[in-house]
Design goal:
With 285 residues, the protein is an alpha+beta fold. The chain is built from nine helices and eleven strands. A hairpin with a 6-residue loop joins β5 and β6.
């Protein structure tokens, strides 16, 4: 695949590979993700959250409820998520490629300033300084409707929401020293140490976990003690893959990114770690 006539692969911040993959099997993904659900789920699933979402359009309150329901109840006992909101479209600028960290200067509300028409910003999680509360912002995807129907945007935002939900657990469990987990068989470990185990498993892959994670790949997965962002993005992609059952993998062996269903067969140790992480109990004393 090329970008703006270049022979270089599309950067991970350009969603064209994901959007094209979702479009190719949109009806199956629509059903698999439960995005057809009725609005009666709305109030029951969203209790306790500040949710500022429309009832029509690319992503709605019932869609939010469908994705929230993919995670276990114990997961939310560890989450600092307090709210979910919807905002107008943003795009990544060309300056965002290889920029670390990404800042507001690297995004724009003007399509003409974008890296490409499909370099859309799908979501963002903002947390307070103490990692006690977080709000997820999902952005309307400013896509060409003749090329990508609304269902494709909905699927992309469903993946984004699940990815951002992972941040609302993993961030406090990395940055707060008081977090400990029971990861099964009465094994209690500091959440930071457990996340370092996950880092080693992801690093051992020797490649980015997904097309999006390739935006943070520097020939290796950087140790989170040096820079936590690349690991946390790869982690969110891996956990979301287990929760939703698919991922758009990175370009490899001369081929562009492709949709992979349940790709953990080649990496059973990583999958066991993720399952334990998803179902770990917080230890408060």
């Amino acid at each position: 695949m090329s970008l703006n006539g270049s022979a270089q692969p599309l950067p991970g911040l350009d969603m064209k590979p994901e959007l094209d993959c979702y479009r190719s099997i949109r009806d199956r993904l629509w059903i698999d993700l439960g995005l057809y659900v009725s609005r009666v789920l709305d109030e029951r699933m969203l209790d306790g959250l500040r949710v500022e979402m429309p009832y029509d359009g690319q992503f709605t309150k019932p869609n939010v409820a469908s994705i929230l329901g993919r995670f276990s109840a114990v997961w939310y006992t560890r989450s600092i998520l307090k709210g979910i909101r919807f905002a107008r479209p943003l795009w990544f600028k060309p300056s965002a490629v290889d920029a670390q960290p990404l800042t507001p200067e690297h995004v724009t509300s003007q399509p003409a300033e974008a890296l490409s028409p499909t370099a859309v910003v799908p979501g963002y999680t903002g947390a307070d300084d103490t990692y006690c509360e977080a709000t997820i912002t999902l952005y309307e995807l400013g896509l060409d409707e003749d090329q990508y129907e609304e269902r494709v945007a909905t699927i992309a935002l469903a993946w984004t929401l699940a990815h951002e939900i992972v941040h609302t657990v993993a961030w406090p469990e990395w940055f707060r020293a008081d977090r400990r987990l029971n990861v099964g068989a009465d094994t209690v470990i500091s959440s930071r140490d457990y996340l370092l185990e996950g880092y080693r498993l992801l690093a051992d892959l020797g490649r980015p976990f997904s097309h999006y994670a390739s935006a943070y790949w520097s020939g290796r997965l950087i140790d989170p003690r040096e820079d936590p962002v690349p690991f946390h993005e790869a982690l969110a992609e891996a956990v979301t893959t287990e929760v939703l059952g698919f991922v758009v993998g990175p370009a490899a062996h001369g081929h562009g990114p492709t949709l992979e269903h349940h790709p953990f067969g080649r990496h059973p140790a990583l999958r066991r770690w993720i399952i334990n992480y998803l179902h770990a109990y917080p230890v408060t004393r």
